[in-house]
UniProtKB/TrEMBL annotation, chain A:
It is a peripheral membrane protein. Residues 176-417 form the MHD domain. It is found in: Cytoplasmic vesicle membrane; Golgi apparatus. The keyword Ribonucleoprotein does not apply. This is AP-3 complex subunit mu-2. It comes from the Eukaryota. Keywords: Cytoplasmic vesicle, Golgi apparatus, Membrane, Protein transport, Transport. One of its GO terms (cellular component) is clathrin adaptor complex. GO terms for biological process: intracellular protein transport; vesicle-mediated transport.
From TrEMBL, chain B:
GO terms for biological process: intracellular protein transport; vesicle-mediated transport. It comes from the Eukaryota. Residues 1-34, 678-848 are annotated as: Disordered. The lineage of its organism: Eukaryota, Metazoa, Chordata, Craniata, Vertebrata. This is AP-3 complex subunit beta. It comes from Solea senegalensis (Senegalese sole).
Length: 418, 1128
């Protein structure tokens, strides 16, 4: 399946290669570089590139291209999904997945890649298993390692892969037993010029951080499970129990993991937390444009809208923007024409606004397109869909764990057309 | 793969590639000598005794390898450490070894013995890792060692080692393809493995080594389907893709009678019946099985259904590849109506990373062409955001275009309007193309689109204008005559539009369709002639073209203008224009010199140009398996396995049968709860607990599909109490009537039996009640019993309860034996002396019954009605009698006019196809005592052959979900020339779906199927007139179907009507005051829904038929059946 993997950084250098079968010359990446040159933006590089003898399937994460070399038919999503899993694993191990982090930990990276694929076919991809095989580097461990000469590789051979719960490592022990769940919802919406919603849906996830001793069996139930329209689970969730009773029943992996992601699509259910009043105009024949933007809270159920960040790609003809923000700071990048305004918290009494003029290229005709406005925001302690966890129970272990649930709403791909 | 390694060998490994890299590494200093020095110190470190030094050295070496630098000269020093005690050093040595072994084969051999030792290690993980590294060393000399190691590991105790063995198979195959045959043996062995850990890997090996050996899958098909959910995600993808291909070769196309279905559901049902009638008629038909398969309405193979059902939950997987794999499986295999379920999951994937979106959208685009309706509800999910990468935008646009239809086109167009204003010009161009395609596909909006596009002509962006003009041109070419006003409008635009490309395009249009705008075109030419000198070159060329075309059509008005233009062009700066002018002048203006061509000038210039076809680039992409690399590239990728076409006739489904217990397993999975299946497998591997799928218990307890099924089961169970009551009364009444007619002899006999049964009743009663009350639980237990009893008597599949019953019965009836034996002989004689069919049948039946008394070992489940009402002796069935007795108050139905002589028998197996064995069946209309929800089917076997037939039994029952079958007990011996009958029960689930099974003798197997006419899916009940009216009042509206008819001439009296209706459907008559009306009532067997029939007669044979039934499908079918019965 996956023959080789090349890691290519933003400047087009291959800084790591790994071969699972016979060695493929790195010159194969030339085809990739060609495609990279053709694409105007890095994200426009086609994920699948055919070459005379191979196929290159790549993903772009953290400005690093992970290019897999394939020799024969294989479902492209299989490779793409695997590459993303590799990146997630790196992130899990090193905190960040940057070129520097990979270079610093090249031995661990190599060991990981060796375990994740055997002959190009995925072998161990569960983070719990991998962590048993290869311990993630920590400052303390690095120091101890240098002094005592001990290793990153687990002394004990992993048992998880052989156990009935392949995602959970055995022999987990904690003094404080705790289980935290974060219900995070993102609103994806397109708002049209007049302020009406064209499409809106909620994408939610429940991320868990479970640190429990032994083999706990958890059940999580919701007050209103019918809300969840389309769900996808971590493999640990007993699907049949969900189908029958709408209860999440699972033996959790150790540590952080995504328990489920869900989708609430019915448009009436989606409350739009903010509104935008905008007036962006360019006049024919004048080299000035007006820019006027006001934000206000809409349906927030009394919760504060925080960390608001407005960004907009202004037309190419705009030379500069001379604006005045009533709150927060704004920046305008004259090269990329990207305007971003860090608003912060919206105060309903004094609505934040950004007003001023844009100067256009002299003599150029007025741009016929209006920029779209992208909004990011956060609302704490609320899931906008109204989803509520009813209770969390633990079976199979004696102790009483500490349980916590946090709700948060964010804007996902929240776009206002002007 | 072998090719690739060879390719690398030629290049002399990667040394040539790696070496120049030295210079790039700042750490290496860039000087070769220092590099050697560094390698020297690495060697020293590796040779030292300290693990920490070795580790440090190995880390540096691995870092070099990772950067793609050559470290091959360190090979001897590294390979020495292969036996190092330190795990990390060891691992890094492995990494190095696998990378360079190919280049240094001789030295690599030094390490082999270490791995061979590892293969014998007591720790499974060490065995596995030894095998893994050994098989990764691509050195041809060790092929035999690898082969041996794989074979040994394939039968290792540990599933983890077996998994590693599966991984090693493709490695060895790529190293030496000659080992294929031996490897296939190993694959075959591993395919039979029952652990989820191995399944994915071995299927992967199968796909790489021998994808053409589909026959290896047969025996493992059901196991793979059942294990699928517990397999790790990557394995799931591979298995699902393989099973898609498998299913394409083994099952019939579920959409084969799509056309029929479109005509209406009833028609297909009807068609089936006609088919059956035909089958009855032409008796000498050979190869019945094959033709049946072709002619029969499509019935899904239960294995096909199993696959669809077991993959469905995987749509919920977090892994996009798994979701896509299931989606493509549904797209390629599921009946049209069921494909819709995948849409939601695919739309969900659109939230994922952009690479995932890219692949998913490509597949969605292909799907939307074939099945637009599926994604229509998700239209808005494909709306484009300005932040999407262009390649995603274009794909979304493609999907939106494919989804456009009359109802949503206005919203889509409004959406497109915003896209046109985008800053991304490539995307705008794609949008204009999309608008053009919408306009071609949907006639209603063509004008709107055209107008919109015309407006775009004034856009400042050249790309936009060019694209719009091209699209407008294409659109106008399709229906030029209708759009003369647009052409006129465009002619007006020429004053304002400055973009040369657009002007040129407009002129071309006016020239091409000058006949549609005869008044305007000369004027345009006049204007253009005026501004000729200031125009751009492409516009000038089009002016000349326009002039030429006008000259040919309207020379009177434009002759001078053309001359003028041509003269201007003659002195143009551009030689192209001068050339063109000269050429055209020669062509259109007839002179002596101009040759024959000028005659054809008009044809040359005004030839009908074909309208360009605007179609999706994704059209017909679905001949590639969706989700595959080949589909994405729209070109066959290396190693792509073509998705086979559906077979014409289904190949023998019995190849998938495994053993007897698996057969049973399947039957239960189909009907309801598979927990015990899992239990059984668990029992079997109790000693290897590790292997069992993790969730097997909990799944059993509350499976999604299973639980749904079991729910319905329990529902049936609760109903069955009332059901049995009713059926009891019905049968009782019949018996009482018929009893009086029957012969004395038999009566005596039956009386005797009744006594016995009453005795037993006392014993049995409590059990019976509890049975019916908690049938779902009971069923499960029953199955367990069944399973236990299975090994003892693997052939006759009798339920435990019945077993006990019949055992005790037979012990009691021992005393009667001699008597009945004598009787049998008498009967036999009689049978032989009477050749006609009917009597033979009846005698045979009696005989059969007594045989069962004789035959102590035959655990005859006392199948209730061995009897047709015709020969009408009392049922020997214990249970029926009991029921009858216990419910004696509800009797004396005044109306059950049993349709005498009316039981129609159908042929199950013709004597020629059956090689002497002919089988007929009829619906005996008796309640089926072991299970009140089943329809009793009486089967009559006649052995016309010269030799005895032995071990008649049924096997391999294939049913639609929810249906159940109670098999008839095995008939041990059917002597030549003899006839016998048996009764089986089928729960048709109130549908006319056929029950397919195999009829097996000791030598042969025959595929047969039983399909009930709708009238047999009900049992009579007794209602009073008032009750009837009350019930009828509640079943109005949708549940009532009324049909007018003219009665057949022979059928104008009450008696015949009653007779005909009761023949057509198993209903009982309801007393009625009026003689103009006949009323009948019944309940469907499975769900006990009321079926009420009223036939109101009027003058001169006119009549009105009314059927009230909750189940509308049954109602409509019943109306047709009764209508047919009354009018013929």
């Amino acid at each position: 399946m996956i023959h080789s993997l090349f890691l290519v950084n933003a400047s087009g250098d291959i800084f790591l290669e790994k071969h699972w079968k016979s060695v493929v010359s790195r010159s194969v990446c030339d085809y990739f570089f060609e495609a990279q040159e053709r694409a105007t933006e890095p994200e426009n590089v086609p994920p699948v590139i055919p070459t005379p003898h191979h196929y290159l399937i790549s993903v772009l994460r953290h400005r690093i291209f992970f290019v897999a070399v394939i020799q024969s038919e294989v479902p492209p999503l299989f490779v793409i999904e695997f590459l993303h899993r590799v990146v997630d694993t790196f992130q899990d191990y090193f905190g960040v997945c940057t070129e520097a982090a990979i270079k610093d930990n090249v031995v661990v990276v190599y060991e990981l890649l060796e375990e994740m694929l055997d002959n190009g076919f995925p072998l161990a991809t569960e983070s719990n298993i991998l962590k048993e095989l290869i311990k993630p580097p920590t400052i303390l461990r690095t120091m101890v390692n240098t002094i005592t000469g001990s290793t990153n590789v687990g002394e004990q051979l992993p048992t998880g892969q052989l156990s009935v719960v392949p995602w959970r490592r055995t022999g987990v022990k904690y003094t404080n037993n705790e289980a935290y769940f974060d219900v995070v919802e993102e609103i994806d919406a397109i708002i049209d010029k007049s302020g009406s919603t064209i499409t809106a849906e909620i994408q939610g996830v429940i991320d868990a951080c479970v640190k429990l001793t032994g083999m706990p069996d958890l059940t999580l139930s919701f007050m209103n499970p019918r809300l969840l329209d389309d769900v996808s689970f971590h493999p640990c969730v007993r699907f049949k129990r969900w189908e029958a009773e709408r209860i999440l029943s699972f033996i959790p992996p150790d540590g952080n993991f995504r328990l489920l992601s869900y989708h609430v699509s019915s448009q009436n259910l989606v409350a739009i937390p903010v509104y935008v009043k905008h007036n962006i105009t360019f006049r024919e024949g004048s080299s000035q444009g007006r820019f006027d933007l006001t934000l206000g809270p809409k349906q927030t159920m009394g919760k504060a809208v925080e960390a608001v960040l407005v960004s907009s790609q202004l037309p190419r003809g705009v030379l500069n923007a001379n604006l005045n923000a009533s709150q927060g700071t704004y920046t305008f990048d004259p090269v990329t024409k990207m305007l971003s305004w860090d608003v912060g918290k919206i105060n309903p009494q004094k609505l934040p606004s950004l007003k001023g003029t844009m100067s256009l290229q002299a003599g150029a005709s007025k741009p016929d397109e209006n920029p779209t406005i992208n909004i990011q925001l956060k609302i704490q302690q609320m899931a906008i869909s109204g989803l509520k966890v009813n209770r969390l129970d633990m079976y199979g272990e004696k102790y009483k764990p500490f349980k916590g649930i946090k709700y948060m709403t964010k804007a996902g791909k929240f776009q206002v057309r002007t | 793969m072998s090719a690739s390694s060879a390719f690398n060998d030629e290049k002399g490994g990667s040394s040539s590639v790696g070496e120049p890299e030295y210079g790039h590494d700042p750490a290496s200093g860039g000087i070769f000598s220092s590099d050697y020095k560094r390698h020297d110190d690495l060697k020293e470190m590796l040779d030292s005794n300290k693990d920490s030094l070795k580790l440090e050295a190995m880390k540096r070496i691995v870092a070099m390898v990772a950067r793609g630098k050559n470290a091959s000269d360190l090979f001897p020093a590294v390979v020495k450490n292969v036996a190092c005690k330190n795990i990390e050093v060891k691992k890094l040595v492995y990494v190095y070894l696998v990378r360079y072994a190919e280049e240094q084969q001789d030295l690599a051999l030094l390490s082999i013995s270490t791995f061979q030792r590892g293969l014998k290690d007591p720790n499974q993980l060490i065995r596995a890792s030894a095998l893994r590294v050994l098989s990764s060393i691509r050195v041809t000399i060790i092929v035999p060692i690898m082969m041996l190691a794989i074979k040994e590991a394939a039968s290792d105790m540990s599933p983890y080692v077996r998994k590693t063995a599966a991984h090693a198979i493709p490695k060895l195959y790529s190293l030496d393809p000659e080992q294929k045959d031996q490897l296939i043996e190993v694959i075959e062995k591993l395919l039979a493995d029952k652990t989820t850990l191995v399944a994915g890997s071995v299927v992967m090996a199968f796909e790489e080594v021998c994808p053409e050996r589909i026959d290896l899958i047969h025996k493992n098909y059901r196991k793979l389907c059942n294990l699928l959910i517990d397999v790790e995600e990557w394995g799931q993808v591979v298995i699902i893709n393989m099973l898609t291909r498998y299913a394409r070769t083994q099952f019939l196309n579920p959409n084969i009678n799509e056309s029929l279905l479109e005509e209406g559901g009833e028609k297909t049902f009807y068609g089936s019946e006609e088919d059956e009638d035909e089958d009855d008629e032409d008796k000498d038909k050979k190869a019945e099985v094959a033709t049946m398969a072709k002619r029969k309405p499509y019935v899904m193979d239960p294995d096909h259904r199993l696959l669809l059902r077991n993959t469905k939950p995987l749509l919920q997987s977090r892994n996009a590849a798994v979701v896509m794999a299931v989606a493509q499986l549904y797209f390629h295999l599921a009946p049209k109506a069921e494909v819709g379920v995948i849409a939601k999951a695919l739309v969900r994937l659109l939230r994922s990373h952009s690479e995932v979106q890219y692949v998913v959208l490509q597949n969605v685009a292909t799907m939307t062409i074939k099945r637009r309706g599926m994604f229509e509800p998700y239209l808005k999910s494909f709306y484009i955001r300005s932040t999407d990468p262009t390649q995603i935008k274009v794909l979304k646009l493609e999907v939106l275009t494919n989804l456009a239809n009359e109802t949503n086109i206005s919203t889509i167009l409004r959406e497109f309007q915003t896209y046109i204003k985008s800053m991304d010009k490539d995307f705008v161009a794609a949008t204009i193309q999309a608008i053009g395609r919408c306009a071609t596909n949907i006639g209603e909006v063509r004008d709107t689109c055209l107008n919109g596009l015309v407006q775009l002509l004034s856009n400042r962006d050249e790309l936009v204008v060019a694209e719009s003009v091209v699209v407008i041109k294409k659109l106008l070419q399709m229906q030029p005559e209708k759009h003369s006003d647009i052409i006129k409008h465009m002619a007006k635009l020429i004053d304002n539009i400055q973009v040369p490309m657009a002007r040129a395009s407009i002129l071309w249009l006016i020239g091409e369709y000058c006949e549609h705008v005869p008044k305007i075109s000369p004027d345009v030419l006049r204007k253009m002639a005026k501004s000729f000198t200031n125009e751009e070159d492409i516009v000038k060329l089009q002016i000349i073209n326009l002039a030429a075309k006008l000259y040919l059509t309207n020379s009177k008005q434009t002759k001078l203008l053309t001359q003028y233009v041509l003269n201007l062009a003659k002195y143009d700066q551009n030689y192209d224009i001068r050339d063109r002018a000269r050429f055209i002048r020669q062509l259109i203006v007839p002179t002596e010199k101009s040759g024959a061509l000028s005659k054809y000038a008009k044809k040359l210039f005004l030839a009908l140009k074909p309208a360009p076809v605007l179609e999706s680039p994704f059209k017909d992409r679905d001949h590639f398996q969706l989700g595959s690399l080949s589909h994405l590239l729209n070109a066959k990728a290396g190693g792509y396995q073509e998705l086979p076409d559906w077979p014409e006739a289904a190949p023998d489904p019995s190849v998938r049968n495994v053993e007897v217990f698996t057969l049973l397993e399947r039957v239960t999975t189909l009907t309801s709860v598979p927990e015990w299946t899992k239990c059984s497998s668990r029992e079997k591997r109790k000693e290897k607990k590790v292997e069992k799928p993790f969730y097997s218990d909990s799944e059993g307890e509350s499976g999604p599909t299973e639980s749904a099924d079991s729910e319905s089961d329990s529902a049936n169970g609760s109903e069955s109490v009332s059901g049995s009551e009713v059926s009891g009364s019905g049968s009782e009444s019949e018996e009482s009537e018929e009893g009086s007619e029957s012969e004395e002899e038999e009566e005596e006999e039956d009386e005797e039996k009744d006594k016995k049964k009453k005795k037993k009743e006392l014993k049995k009663k409590p059990v019976q009640e509890s049975e019916s009350e908690q049938s779902s639980e009971e069923e499960e237990e029953e199955r367990k019993h069944e399973r236990k009893s299975k090994p003892r008597k693997s052939d006759s599949e009798t339920e435990s309860g019945d077993e006990e019953e019949s055992e005790s019965e037979s012990s009691q009836s021992e005393s009667d034996e001699s008597e009945s034996e004598a009787e049998v002989k008498k009967k036999k004689k009689a049978a032989q002396s009477k050749p006609p069919a009917k009597p033979v049948k009846t005698d045979g039946k009696k005989e059969k019954k007594e045989m069962s008394l004789l035959d102590l070992d035959d655990f005859e489940p006392a199948p209730s009605p061995q009897v047709t009402p015709v020969n009408s002796f009392l049922s020997s069935s214990l249970v029926t009698d009991l029921e009858g007795l216990s419910l004696s108050d509800s009797v004396l139905s005044p109306a059950t006019i049993a349709p005498s002589s009316a039981l129609k028998s159908y042929e199950l197996l013709h004597r020629i196809t059956g090689e002497g064995l002919s089988v007929e069946y009829c619906f005996s209309r008796q309640p089926f005592s072991p299970d009140a929800n089943m329809v009793a089917v009486q089967i009559q076997f006649t052995n016309n052959a010269t030799s005895d037939t032995k071990n008649l039994h049924m096997e391999d029952v294939k049913l639609q979900s929810g249906m159940r079958v109670k098999e008839f007990p095995e008939i041990e011996l059917l002597p030549a020339g003899e006839t016998t009958t048996a009764v089986m029960g089928i729960d048709f689930c109130d549908s006319t779906q056929a029950a397919n099974f195999q009829l097996c003798t000791h030598t042969r197997k025959f595929f047969v199927s039983i399909q009930p006419p709708v009238g047999e899916l009900m049992r009579p009940i007794f209602l009073t007139e008032n009750e009837f009216k009350k019930e009828q009042g509640q079943l109005m509206g949708m549940n009532e179907i009324t049909e007018r008819l003219t009665l057949d001439v022979k059928c104008r009296n009450e008696h015949t009507i009653v007779q005909r209706v009761t023949t057509a459907a198993n209903l009982s008559r309801v007393p009625c005051g009026s003689d103009k009306e006949c009323r009948f009532a019944g309940r469907t067997v499975t769900s006990s829904s009321l079926v009420l029939v009223t036939v109101a007669t009027k003058e001169e044979g006119a009549a009105q038929l009314t059927v009230n039934c909750e189940k509308m499908v049954i109602g409509t079918m019943l109306v047709k059946d009764i209508l047919q019965a009354l009018t013929q």
